[in-house]
Amino acid sequence: MSRTSIFSRLLSASIAIMIASSASAQMDKTCAFFENETVELVIPFSAGGGFDVYGRMVAKYMGPQLGAASMIVRNQPGAGGLLATNQTWTEKPDGLKLQLIAVSGMLAAELGDAPGVRFKTNEFSWVGRVSGEPDVVATNPGGTIKTVDDAQKLGAERAVRIGSTGLGSPQYISAKLLETVIETNANVITGFSGSPEVYASLGRGELDLFSSSLSAADAAEKAQTGQTIWLLGTEAVAGRPEIRPISEMVDAKFLPLIKAHASAVAAGRAIAAPPGLSEDRLKCLRDVFDRTISSPEFLAESRQLNRPVEPLSGAAVADLVRGASEAQKEYLDLLRSSFAQ
After folding, report:
1. What is the pLDDT of residues 130-148, one digit of tens each?
2. Residues 169-191 pLDDT 10s
3. pTM above 0.85, yes or no
4. Domain boundaries defined on the chain
5. Residue 179 — φ and ψ, nearest 5°?
6. Architecture of the domain made up of 135-264
7. In a 3-state reduction of DSSP, which class is residue 119?
């Protein structure tokens, strides 16, 4: 190899090292504020559910990446997530308080004029999405409901009991949509603290249907407290042909509603800081989140816990939320009627 070639390679390597060092120094400078600080990640639901599992995974790996002394998780259930989200909205925008938000539920609450909403979803400082998975519908493993016709026949005898967490939660909006599209006598039963509690009731035969995330439904199937029967959307789940989209089984007039809901659900579980966070701290949080969510250790644990990760950048989440805020009239009417109680 010629001396020129050797020199060229050495020069290229040196430049690469300089660029990497510069980027690292810039990151260190941007994230210097978080060094040795305690960062709090709020989970708006009870411990043990899907949100709690995702939040604890993020805190476990993101805290060290951020250089924080610790990243602690605090469960703050209440009002289907509204209690925690309202409080996060008013917190000091310094980056030390974050929340894992049920984006579709909070959007629904805001756009549906739900009582008690004191935030604007698209003004949060969005850090990134942890997961985005479709809503599915489950029934009691020993129940008789397999098709929409079955639900309608049961509704002719008594009210179909659809389980849900509180007003404004993703499960509540899904339950109201389900009640609408199956066109039968049904009651949405609220008051559960989270998906595990609803599935426990479903497994005991106290409920007939429940709509949750796919991963929560899969966990319930393993625990034999639920059996997934439909997808609350329009597109089949890859590798799961047994879960039929509900759009194929209900009146075509409901297709716009189902599509709108599926789009809102796509925002998934996302982390946000209060509105007004400075650009440099938001950039730090976004960069660290992106690095955390794609790390081999994080992905290995997500597979071990059967919690699929479908990350999206903070900027992309912000764009998605802005778009969802412009939902069509039919869906807005459904949301408003859901909260007019």
Report:
1. 998 889 999 999 889 999 9
2. 778 889 989 999 999 999 999 98
3. no
4. 12-132+267-339, 135-264
5. -60, -35
6. 3-Layer(aba) Sandwich (3.40)
7. coil
